[in-house]
Predict the 3D structure of the following.
Amino acid sequence: MPDMPGEEIRNNYILSLLPQPELELLRPHCEIVSLHMGDVVEEARQRVRFMYFPIDSAISFTGRDETGRTVDVTVTGKDGCSGSCVAQGSETSASTAMIQVSGSAVRVPASVFKQNMDSLQFLREALIRYNLLLLRHAVISTSCSQFHSGEQRLARWLVSHAHRTGLEAFPFSVRFLAGQVGQDPRDVEALLKQFVEQGLVMLEHNKVILKDTDGLRKRACQCVELTDEATEGFRKALKELVA
């Protein structure tokens, strides 16, 4: 049974800035839910039923081909939410949203947001800006996959996840990582072994633990800085909304 949210609702960046009237309007409709790796919370071209605001989880927006293979397009952690497209009038999701890191999130029915949009002006503006951030991240990710080496892409992916979730340990298998960064599993396994030898990560069974994030940044491409800049710009814009 989902729990009603207390102050943990403030651990999501967007929700942490909600004006008190908006927070009190939403709170009776919010639930704290547990999300598990691999769960699909949103299907491409299907109606968005819920918005999920991660607290300590991560949700990946993925592309999927006809065989069921997936590739990571971008990811949302404690800075944002899934289902943000409803703020711009969309009823359906543009991509599949899959849980990438297990944890908790605040779940809000999309219908509640749409019915109260006029009274949730800050949240609506925040979600519109978050959609722009997701687009920027997706463009950076696509460019990275075309122009940068496998080492750079894997390092960027790990650093970006640490930045967006605040976590240092991820329950990722080699095959899962390979699918997310669009590389052959054998190549990813070889890169991870190099990272271990360089003291950048530690590997356990189906688990990657970051030991030297700064070192990984040096192995990554400039896309890390670009995504960080975009995220900081988003945070600054939200603060200006409540100033």
User: Anything to note?
Assistant: The mean pLDDT is 90. The chain is about 45% helix and 20% strand.
